[in-house]
Amino acid sequence: MFDPTKMLFTGGSGLLGGEVKQLVPESFYPTTSEFDVTDFEQMEKFISDKDISLILHAAAFTSPPVIDKDPQKALAVNIIGTANIVQLCMKRNIRLIYISTDYVFNGDQGNYKEEDPVFPVNKYAWSKLGGECAVRLYDNSLIVRTSFGPNNFPFEKAFADQWTSRECARDIAAKIVSVLDKDITGTLHIGAPRRTVLDYARSLTGDDSVKPLFRNEVSFHVPADTSLDCGRYDASIGKEK
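RE: above sequence
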């Protein structure tokens, strides 16, 4: 059974962390200075006097443009840091849930299932896939692929020709919390039914104030369709299709 007083959340200062903390306030949400995923000895010392049975690992370096120019921090945090978390969980028999991204898929297909082939679209996604590789070495683990943004859409325009399963951080946090007491391992896709980013944005504003943008209007690569098949999640919580 899930005991919120025995969960540790990494990345508590991020969008997702703020929402999870509102739903599960009894858990541990250490700062980076207290629990740096690149410092194994510090992490081990932090939990040495605590009864931790689950680590929900969301800490990551998540700026694709910056990572494309300088991938060193993504290597340190997203790959080596995640490997450190896996090692810590292995050593202490702690369950691990790792937050990954829909961008591990190249976007040519859409409605991706958990077992579909992965091919990241940028260095950020490669670094998150590197984290997935480390997590897969540990049987008592779950990889959650998802996509989320602020609860209020922050831009004037959104892609009308990019398809996604993105939801606001509040809704994704609630869905993640709903599986904390489930005995699920492997990989799980969590998100909304397939829709354009423009539709997602307008669902947050409640009107058509967000205007359309098209992928060929920007200078960086935008995958066409990284929407996720979330049927396994629906089945895990007893939701009918």
